[in-house]
Amino acid sequence: MRILFFLLALATTIALVVILDTTKLLPAPLGRWLSPQQGIWQNAESLDHDYNANLTIPGLKGNTEVYFDERLVPHIFSDNEEDPYFVQGYLHAKFRLWQMEFQTHFISGRISEIVGDAGIKSDRGFRRMGITSAAESSLAFMEKDEVMRQTMDAYTAGVNAYIENLPESQLPIEYKLLGYKPEKWTNLKSVLFFKAMSYDLVGGDDDFEQTNLLKILGEADYNFLFPQAEDSLSPIIPKGIPFTKSAEIPLAPADADSVYFHRRDSLWFTQEFKPDPDNGSNNWVVSGSKTKSGKPILCNDPHLSLSLPSIWMEMQITTPTSNAYGVTFPGLPIVVIGFNDYIAFGVTNAGRELKDYYEIRFRDASRTEYWFNNAWKKADLRIEQISVKGSAPFIDTVAYTVFGPVIYDKTFKDKLNQNKAYALSWIAHYPSNPLKMWYQLNRAKNYNDYLDAVQYFNEPSQNIVFASKEGDIAIKQEGKFPLRWEGQGSFVMPGTDSSYMWKEFIPRQDNPFSHNPEQGYLSSANQRAVDTSYPYFIPGSYDMYRGVSINRRLSVMSNITPDDMKRLQNDNYNVFAEHMRPLMLRYVDRDRLSPEALRFLTLLEQWNLNSDIQETGPTIFENWVDSLRPALFRDELFRNDLPVIFPSDEIIAQSLIRDSSSFKFIDNTKTPETETLADILTSSLEKATPGLKKAEDDHRLEWGKFKNTSVYHLLRERMLPFGRLGLPIGGGKHIINATKQKNGPSWKMVIHMTTPTEAYGIYPGGQNGNPGSPFYDNTVLDWAKGQHYKLWVMQQNEKKDKRVKATMKFSS
Amino acid sequence: MKFFISIILTVLLAFAFGLYLPWWSIALAAFMVSALIPVKPGWAFLVGFISLFLLWGGLAWFQSVNNNHILAHRMSQVILKEDDPAKLTLFAALIGGVIGGFAALSGRLFRTLLR
Fold first, then answer.
1. Range of the domain at A610
2. Partner of A44 at 20 to 30 A CA spacing, among A323, A431, A553, A792?
3. Is the ipTM beyond the 0.90 threshold?
4. Domain boundary among A701, A717, A742
5. Cβ A6–B31 below 8 Å, yes or no?
6. What is the pTM of this model?
């Protein structure tokens, strides 16, 4: 009897431990999570946490000191050129380890290891894009450069020095919640981080949709609705600056007209791997002739998916040859957007289309041979083993062709289930050493150093803006760009011979470029860089209105101060609405509108065209336009539900303004009557009205509430309480303050080239990636308010300054 | 008297184990103390429960207060679907207590086996 009682008690104890240590019965291992000595409470960082430390690490070259200020910005001072990057790696790991590893796992197709079979689709997709093999060849290329290899080695060693001494109880909370552990950092992971950036910034295309549209619309209508440049384009390179043309434009293949431009079949195909279409950026620079101080001011705000932990980490890195301040990417050494004692630099996305598809004809289901230049050619098969949490590994085989990896084929279909195979040619497959540009920009002293630095930049192509204390301003669109024949790559191309391949690249010296223009300012906002006088064919996914807004404002400004520039970054004026609203108000038929719709129309009429949080106008405008787009184009474009895209807002506005009575897409071809602009404007407003009424009843007709800008944790819906949702911030699409629901200015920077440098900046989040730290999200509300912090460029002799809150010392 | 000594010993031993061993080492601590120091059989569960309830609740609360409950606010929404740091602490304390209680009871019954 006694033994029975004992066994019963023991069994209960063991059962409880097992239940609370695993997810066999409960959705979470609650015992492991809630243990105060191992679990989440250990991540509850004390408000007066002591960041001081003295670290002795064998192998360091010299002495490095780190001073943390009140916002936990590390100011790194080193007596040599390598250790500061070791320390940068160490600090990135200390504050952002989980995010660095998660992002590189994600891009290399290893997310199933963490989340189980829900991640297989995404993992296969990224592996089939050839990202890891591209990263491997880029790494080999970068490591041939001795300085870059040393820099990356130092960074990697720094990350690993932190990981090696990290007790399990101190693991970032996400590891505890997801139940895995960090692995060692490698140089390859840093390159993978670059490839993640390339995916985000030059990983977009609409080639399949465009192929269908060309067939549905015919060449004339297609070119009309999807032109290369808009009428009201305000290009990055001021109009009138002549371009050079040092390469011959190749001729289109002889059969292009019959098999490419006029292909017979349609593509029942949905490209499922597309980056956030809202990724973009603003940057601009004004020369001393337009500022109050007589010194240039440089501004930059990159628009990326808003996330916590933030994509950026602010740092000052001082070495014997450089004193760079700005934001860094956890995962990479060096300052990416910032300034030093001589110059400032910033980037926006070039938006060029650098991803093409080739239709591959395999000999048989084994995918070992494909038809190329009139013969069967062997494909290289790369076996991808995807480890899956909680089940057996998934084995995928990817065929590599002369064009690139075959992303889609019979074994990896899109949801429309077409059995065709498509190989991917992508600029990110080419070896590149982008880090070298940033390494040199961190050390640049003048305009010539800038020119020397940017030549190393291949991908992801950017508009690199520059200002120096000597008074120079410049912008250059840099990257590796295929030299295309007119129309090459806009549609899916035949993959049976070499005539459609990328062969040469646009010579560097012909890339769009401007230095000290007469107008005294330069800007870029993801618009097409050049007007139609540029000699090359440069398709892309461009955004026009922000550029129009910025250039219009800069052109009339004078005596500019940094405060003016901060206000411009926060500007909520909607130029798209400025173009569209008069037309909408003029043609809508008020007599036919319901009282409810009429009321919304009146509110829209009273709107001041600023997309501020308390305005209702922007909500009404956006909803009306959202219902207008399909009213215009659904009948003509959506044939048989083939995947297509709508023409851009720029083209809609331009066409309707130019041609309000006879624009042929106004008529709904599915009805016997001939509709007028008044008809479709009236019916589309009526159609938007119930949604607007619902928003009004829910008290979210005001733009800030309707837009609901939110900064999610990287795990998104899985971890909502780690995000900051429903932030009071205006702006939106086509607006300088490009804050949308989940995407927006991820860093806002204003640099005044005075001595000492006057600098301002802010990003939404905080320096510490730990959701249990007061520095996790401390800047979010200030960011939403449109504030900028004054950046402290610390000097060597300010070690005793009261802004220094903690000191870390590294030596061997 | 033995009752209080047992509680103090269990708390100390569980804390020491927790520095080096996995979280469930609290069960070992409670088992060992009640196997070595006999209290009335019915009270053994209470010794384990109270010890670990106090240890887990106390440590969690202490760390959370120093953190101004920043993390507990977030984690209580993740685990309990409501924003209540105190409730999350209580929940942690109960988990510790229940495991401690059954482990101590097992230890006490183990001792009776050997007699």
1. 575-701
2. A792
3. yes
4. A701
5. no
6. 0.95
